[in-house]
Amino acid sequence: MQRRSFLRGLGLVAAASAVITPSMVMAAEAPTGPNALTIEAALQAITGGKAVVVSPLVHLKAPEIAENGAVVPVTIEVDSPMTEDNYVKAIHVFATKNSNVRCADVMLTPANGAAMLATRVKLGTSQAVMALIETSKGEFLSASQNVKVTIGGCG
Amino acid sequence: MQIAAALGLVTVAGGCARTVPGTNPAAFGLKDLYDFNAKGKVTLLHMCDLHAHIKPLYWREPSTLISAPNLVGTPGFLCGEAFSKHYGLEPSSLDSYFDTYMDFDALAEKFGKMGGIAHMKTLVNEIKRQRGAENVLFLDSGDTWQGTGVALKTGGEAIVQAQNYLGVDVMVGHWEFTYGKERVKELIGMLDAKFISQNVVGNDPFADEYEELIFEPYTIEERGGAKIGIIGQSFPFTSTANPKEFTEGWSFGLRLDTLQEYVDELRDVHKVDCVVVLSHDGFSVDQEVARQVNGIDFILSGHTHDPSPKPITINGTAIMIAGSHGKYIGRLDIDIQDHVVKGYEYKLIPIAANIIPADPEGVKLVNELYAPFDAEFNEVLGQTKGTLYKRDTFHSTFDQLINDAIMDEMKCDISFTPGYRWGTTVLAGDNILMDNVYEMCGITYPNVYTFELKGARIAQLLEDIADNVFNANPLYQQGGDMSRLGGVTYSITVGAKVGQRISALMIGGKPLDPKKTYIVSSWGGNLQNAGENIQEDKIRAVYDVTRDYIRRHKMVDVSNTGNVTLLDYDCGCPSKGGGC
């Protein structure tokens, strides 16, 4: 238990340090308002207009209904051999209806051994959470899931 | 059944006997309730949503049960005439009295009260006598510890004693958690049954239980020479439906991926003969669970309070749910041969307190448990002119009485009462006891809060609540009814998109002004967290507010005219495809 908790703790730190801040967003993405960025603009900036394919290789896990919209656990795993000639280069996470949709960009190398990311995202409203995967072959794969954010209150 | 059905080897009997049609209810007797086409060697007994009703009560089923258009007329959204037609009930029969609202008052005179642990126990004893106690397993889908004054005043302990007396073997939870984590653990310590859940996991990174299961995910019980694997599924939305502080550090959710892993583990590693999911997901959600998870033989469901006389089968999984408030026990006989479920027989048995005699030991236990509170609970607060009941999608009379009481005391523009499905029924002309008030609102967070909300926010909150009730995808429903609103009228298009369902929203007879600040009172939810300027001096328990109002009025005469106009259906219990 102790060791597992410790390792999980490390995992969290690693994931957290990979989160970029809005100020790091590339100038080319041209925010439309104070700290605003649409999903279309964000995808365009990353893919340069290349097609994004919804893929069963990308496994995105998120709750159907958020227990707390401020910290929604999201896990992304990609089926990939992670070898020199075929690996996942990057995992991007989006909250598609937040005013700034970009939540996390994580860069990977074959040395990572597995393409997996667990993090928490903040959701302003009910919306789809999306993962965009960039492979070493230059393909873009995606998966998304709706997460409902509600004040709740009816038992 | 899972495997056999997949191979097409047997036609599952899909057994369901019902109590004999009651053209002559007077001739109807105990033998008809006990009568069962026994099958195989194993019997599972199932109850759900007792809501702490250890004494018999009246409980009227809903006269409206509105859903998203795609779910209209499906089990889980049937009531009244549509229910009667779907299950082939005889008018004015005992089944009709138990399962529908039709002719309720007249049939209540004829058939009397429902449920009560002393009457349930007599039935359990009889089934154990028929089958051999060692072949019977008693499963409880939760919402057992909360819902009456005696439960509230004893912190749930009275009900744990009742479960031990009944001989419950395994349970899961929902309202149980509103006693708080520490008390839940204490009560589990007193409980003879096992408390299991595969979908409650620690989420506090600084706690030892981080990402660990809080309860055992499953148990394996041997009955009638067979190994039965039972996986627990507590209410997936406990932390959004009830205050988070009770379960801080525990995360819920459906967790279908791990559910599938445990099903596989039970079959592949433990070689069980039958996989049962004991669930508090709700009847509609569990139909979706059966579609998405493979290899479950039976789901014994709970939460949505549906009496379902016939099981429904989806993807090789038979799903049953046994009503609420102790009104029924479901009996499931399973025929297991060569480690495979070959067939089953099911009967939803109504606990008719005038037909099934009380076990004297149970009567004694109930009296002992109530004795310390008799003086308070038996106070006659007043009388009701019409029948007071809970349920229905938008409006029911006992909720209206609570809203009337709150608006009278708090001088608010709007009162919100939660759309729970538990409570009680008081017949027209009967006395209202303090015990009845606790049956309607005896919760561990009873405060009525009075605060300010902007019109625009009120409209948005109503849309949000409507989407929890009417979402077309069962996985996004929370299984309650619409919040009951005092001081408000509105129209609703259930099938409209999220955020566009509600129109003609009027407050105090005037159209809602999005910019105006309204005074709102609310209890039993989280709405006060969205409000401003909470009036601290007005905070008071809802059962005290309601008690004082009834005492002042002596005779209450509550309108049974709803405050909501439904635009896309023309009646309360639509059949498949809409209409009546």
Task: Describe the model.
The complex is a heterodimer of chains A (155) and B (580). Chain A has 155 residues and is of the alpha+beta class. Helix content of chain A is 16%, strand content 34%. A five-stranded mixed beta sheet of chain A has the order 1-8-7-4-5, covered by helices on one side. Chain A has a three-stranded antiparallel beta sheet with strand order 2-3-6. In chain A, a hairpin with a 4-residue loop joins strand 7 and strand 8. Chain A is globular and about 45 Å long. In chain B, helix 6 packs antiparallel against helix 13 and helix 15 crosses helix 18. The longest helix of chain B is centred in the last third of the chain and has 16 residues. The N terminus of chain B is likely disordered. Chain B is α/β, with parallel strands linked by helices and 580 residues long. In chain B, the strands form six sheets. Chain B has a seven-stranded mixed beta sheet with strand order 1-15-14-2-3-4-5. Chain B has a six-stranded mixed beta sheet with strand order 7-8-10-11-13-12, with helices on one face.
Determine the fraction of residues in helical runs of chain A and give it as a percent range: 10-25%
What share of residues are in beta strands of chain B? Answer: 15-25%
Gyration radius of chain A, rounded: 16 Å
Q: Number of helical runs of chain A?
A: 2
Span between N and C termini of chain A?
34 Å
Structural class of the secondary structure composition of chain B?
alpha/beta
How big is the Rg of chain B? 23 Å
Number of helices of chain B: 18
CATH topology-level fold name of the largest domain in chain A:
Immunoglobulin-like
Largest interface summary: A-B, 23 and 44 residues
Parts with pLDDT < 50 across at least 5 consecutive residues of chain B: 3-17
Number of domains of chain A: 2
Gap between N and C termini of chain B: 35 Å
Question: So, the CATH homologous superfamily of the largest domain in chain A?
Answer: SoxY domain
Described by its quaternary structure, the protein is: heterodimer
Sketch the topology of chain A as an H/E string, one letter per element.
HHEEEEEEEE
